[in-house]
């Protein structure tokens, strides 16, 4: 598999996992104690749990996508609802990345705008407290505010450039 495809898969997996887990729960750079690990071994990919300096429940895959899906299965503890939701998120991120790579800047912005509109419509359908909470989480996720609700330095700098 090409290096670019591996990078796309790792980035999609990172985005998927970081939405629900802390970086101490997983590793893409080899062994990490008490974490689910993804590690390349020549042409293969290993998924395992780092425990007492051992690679517990080691599984090997020739395909990065299969290894990423196994990592999701392991980190969720086998919870079928979480597995389905995270698998869907991971795979949609890969598809979107590949699709977006071939689009013009204007087309990319149109897709992003459409996604924002869908999200706003969803928020408008929720009770006010729930919508406010989800909107806050969204703004943190995209980097406009921090967890306490303060504007982030990158957002302030961007805003001050009057773009």
Describe the structure.
The protein is α+β, with helices and mostly antiparallel strands. It has two domains: 3-102, no CATH class; 104-163, no CATH class. It has helices at residues 3-18, 64-75, 80-101, 105-124, 128-141, 153-160; strands at residues 26-27, 36-41, 44-51, 54-61. Strand 3 and strand 4 form a beta hairpin. It starts with a helix and ends with a helix. The relative contact order is 0.09. The mean pLDDT is 87.
Structure, briefly:
With 163 residues, the chain is an alpha+beta fold.
Strand order of the largest sheet: 1-2-3-4
Strand content: 5-15%
Shape label: globular
Number of distinct helices: 6
Mean pLDDT: 87
The helix fraction, in percent, is 55-70%
Distance between the termini: 39 Å
Could you tell me the number of beta strands? 4
> Nearest-angstrom radius of gyration?
18 Å
Order of helices and strands: HEEEEHHHHH
The main pleated sheet reads as: 4 strands, mixed
By helix and strand content, what is the structural category? Answer: alpha+beta
Tally of distinct domains: 2
Low-confidence stretches: none
List keywords for this structure.
163 residues; alpha+beta; 2 domains; 4-stranded mixed β-sheet; globular
Summarize the helices and strands and which ones pair or pack:
Elements: H1 3-18, E1 26-27, E2 36-41, E3 44-51, E4 54-61, H2 64-75, H3 80-101, H4 105-124, H5 128-141, H6 153-160
Parallel strand pairs: 1-2
Antiparallel strand pairs: 2-3, 3-4
Helix pairs in contact: 1-2, 1-3
């Amino acid at each position: 598999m090409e290096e670019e495809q591996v990078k796309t898969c790792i980035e999609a997996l990172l985005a998927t996992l970081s939405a629900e887990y802390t970086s101490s729960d997983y590793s893409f750079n080899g062994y990490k104690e008490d974490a689910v690990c993804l590690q390349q071994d020549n042409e293969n990919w290993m998924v395992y749990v780092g425990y007492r300096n051992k690679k517990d429940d080691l599984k090997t895959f020739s395909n990065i996508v299969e290894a990423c899906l196994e990592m999701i299965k392991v980190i969720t503890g086998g919870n079928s609802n979480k597995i389905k939701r995270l698998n869907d998120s991971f795979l949609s991120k890969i598809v979107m990345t590949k699709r977006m790579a071939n689009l013009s800047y204007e087309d990319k912005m149109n897709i992003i705008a459409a996604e924002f509109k869908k999200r706003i419509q969803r928020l408008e359908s929720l009770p006010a407290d729930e919508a406010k909470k989800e909107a806050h989480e969204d703004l943190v996720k995209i980097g406009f505010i921090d967890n306490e609700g303060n504007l982030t330095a990158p957002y302030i700098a961007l805003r001050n450039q009057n773009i």
